[in-house]
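Help!! Second protein's tokens look totally different from the first
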Amino acid sequence: MTGKFKTSCRCQPPGGRILVAEDSALYIFLEDHQSRVGYLVSTDFNLSHVRWKQKSDRAWSSEWPRIWHGLLLVGNCRGELDALRISDGAPQWSDKLKGCLRSIGTDGDGEQIYVGAQEGTVYAYSPPANSGTTK
């Protein structure tokens, strides 16, 4: 078997962290190292069309965005946990935890979110039922 190179995207080192989601989209973390601004970019699989781009005033620190109930969950080193709508990147809710948020997971039925901080804390987090901020 041999693969075929189709296209590429030039990213500043260390590049991007990619999560493949759905049947039609890539979600890529990019970072401007000089300004420490982070971006979450949604593209098609061919990297030929940017569907949407969401900017953060600090780079997201979670290993990759976590897909959860039509949202992408992302965290940063200021302890901010953000939920962005998967279809257009619009912010849906945000909350503040302690620590540099590095990993995000869910339980088997997807109702509970678990957030791991670099400092060693693991949070069991119940997200808001609708828009808004609750824990």
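Here's the second one for comparison:
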Amino acid sequence: MVLQVSKSIGSSRLFFFIGFMFYAGLGNEYINPNLPWNELARNVIFYLILLYVAFMGLKLEIKDTIMYVLLVFAGQFLLVMYKPDIEGYPGWFLFGFIVGRIVGVPHPPCEIEEPLDAKRIALGWLALVVFILCFSPAPLVMK
């Protein structure tokens, strides 16, 4: 079976967004396997709807979107069940929801398609280095 990725979004963006949303939902207290069944069922339905709405930004077929939502949820749920102390950063979930639903994951085409000169290439690499040095997976943690 070969995974068919939509032409509107590249496979790297697809897997980055899925991984991003997976990390964001880890350790979510609302999908904790130790909750009572009635509360867990209500929370799971709400969480799956939120994931589905966020994943609609991928602009995939409905069946593919549902598959990715269920895979992300199942992975998170099983990981939390076997390693309860694992924790993502819920702030990224809000950001992923905004990107997935409002902004959209596929990048629009560029107006000017011309190669970059050496100065712009160097500036791009410098920006990437600064981003890597300054990035924090959990930027604001209050306890």
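Reply: Different proteins will give different token patterns, so don't panic. Residues 11-108 form one domain.
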